[in-house]
Amino acid sequence: MTTWSEFTAEAPRVAEIFVRRHAAAGKLCLLATLRADGSPRISPIEPRIFEDRLWMIGMPDTTKFRDLHRDPRFCVHTATVDTQVTEGDAKLWGEVADVRDPALHERFAEDVYADIGLDLRGQTFDHFYEAHLTSGSAVEMVDGHMEVTVWKPGEGERVVRRT
């Protein structure tokens, strides 16, 4: 599996579109997880890039985090309402790892407070999930054609052009 910094080096186009769409949607994405019965669940999430790593952090004791605790596989999709995908679109797949590091948690809380004013400082996080990526893709319109950029670790990016 691949860390965020490795991903951005191997897949600069997919990473750029993900970051751009993530910011344009107010940091909102859709998170796909697996329920206990194996069926899919879609939930809103605000993934955060912090210290060159991608984090899936949110309100504690929610079904999406119970899903990830049971089965760490996920897909995160940049939120879009544009059926023409004129601004691009991106998806990332991977697995989360629960990182237990109180000093990291405190730095994260300080960063969130400085960025959006949400005060999580001094709190203990139930789960602190770092995303390790297994693949990614991005869609964008180029010269009237849809281009799908696909990435897998160690393979770099490849572009499929749809007419």
Description:
This protein has 163 residues and is α+β, with helices and mostly antiparallel strands. The chain has one domain (4-162): Electron Transport, Fmn-binding Protein, Chain A (Pnp Oxidase, Chain A, Roll). Helix content is 26%, strand content 39%. The protein has helices at 4-10, 12-24, 63-70, 102-116; strands spanning 29-34, 40-45, 48-50, 53-56, 73-78, 89-98, 129-142, 145-152, 156-162. Strands 1, 2, 3, 4, 5, 6, 7, 8 and 9 form a nine-stranded antiparallel beta sheet that branches. The mean pLDDT is 92. It holds the Pfam family PNPOx_N. Keywords: Oxidoreductase. This is Pyridoxamine 5'-phosphate oxidase N-terminal domain-containing protein. One of its GO terms (molecular function) is coenzyme F420 binding.
Strand content: 35-45%
Query: What name does the CATH topology carry?
Result: Pnp Oxidase, Chain A
Tell me the CATH architecture: Roll
Structural class category: alpha+beta
Got a strand count?
9
The fourth-level CATH homologous superfamily is Electron Transport, Fmn-binding Protein, Chain A
Round the mean pLDDT to the nearest integer and report it: 92
Count the domains: 1
Kindly, what is the distance between the CA atoms of the first and last residues, rounded to a whole number of angstroms? 33 Å
Largest sheet: 9 strands, antiparallel
Q: What is the radius of gyration computed over CA atoms, rounded to a whole number of angstroms?
A: 16 Å
- Tally of individual helices: 4
